[in-house]
Specification:
Length: 261
């Protein structure tokens, strides 16, 4: 059995018997408690002060993480093998957004803006995408993905890509829980990551990445296996080490599986 499926709550497996095409939940590591890597600003104070004025609140740690996001070195394209990568279902995508049911702290223009950002970054794979507000009567179809807040469709997760129904479902309940546990956390960052991650499944990245920083990553496989990173010591320095947008390795894998040179 696909290992990713075995990690899904039984409830969502029951709800989605055809789960091989629905496997795309985003596993989130325990919710962040520390939000500011002050340690690095102190230990690298000269660089840190300079950077703080240029790209606040960046730090030397953030620079290292950004470098890892921007590069994909030999040997870093590795997955958990929990899914079969395949070509995207369409040569171009339209993501149409329905705001009904969103948590009150997300405004429609904000979510649209995040969607546009994720789509723009994924277009580096060579597959164009556009984002729009969904017309009330719109039906999803191949290449026309409806993005909506849907408790059942999200299976209790932050997000779930349903490739069979061409729907990207977002889970308001998970975001309410995040807000309860950590109200200071910028939930827009998490939403950006969820959108980018689930979009990646539509682009054909079905397996989850073993490289911690990739937006398609899982941090661990639930059986003792851990993701890898160039900077293991930094994993805890960030509330979320995983990128909120596709990394160089996410894009490279996307181009390979879609046979785009
Ligand atoms: Zn996933």
């Amino acid at each position: 059995m696909n290992p990713a499926l075995t990690q899904m709550p039984q409830q969502s497996l029951r709800k989605h018997p055809a789960a091989l095409t629905l496997h795309a939940e985003l596993k989130h590591r325990p919710l962040p408690l520390i939000l500011s890597p002050l340690r690095s600003l102190i230990s690298h104070h000269l660089i840190g002060l300079l950077l703080a004025t240029l790209v606040a609140p960046a730090s030397a740690d953030a620079l290292l993480r950004n470098l890892e996001i921007a590069q994909c070195a030999d040997g870093e394209l590795a997955t958990w093998g929990d899914g079969q990568d395949r070509m995207a279902a369409a040569g171009a995508f339209t993501f149409s957004y329905r705001h009904a049911g969103a948590p009150s702290w997300f405004k429609e223009p904000q979510v649209l803006s995040l969607l546009q950002k994720s789509a723009a970054e994924w277009s580096r794979c060579g597959i164009p995408a556009q984002v729009m507000v969904a017309a009330p009567s719109l039906q999803s179809s191949r290449g026309n993905v409806v993005v909506q807040w849907d408790a059942a469709g999200s299976g209790g997760h932050f997000g779930l890509a349903n490739l069979g129904n061409h729907q990207l479902s977002l889970g308001a309940q998970a975001f309410h829980l995040l807000n309860q546990r950590n109200p200071a956390h910028n939930a827009l960052d998490t939403l950006q990551m969820v959108l980018s991650h689930e979009m990646g499944h539509f682009y054909g990245l079905m397996a989850h990445s073993r490289r911690c920083v990739d937006v398609l990553s899982y941090y661990h496989d639930g059986k003792g296996g851990q993701c890898f990173t160039r900077n293991p010591g930094l994993l805890k320095a960030f509330p979320e080490y995983r990128s909120s947008l596709p990394t160089a390795c996410d894009i490279q894998r996307c181009r390979i599986l879609n046979r785009i040179p």
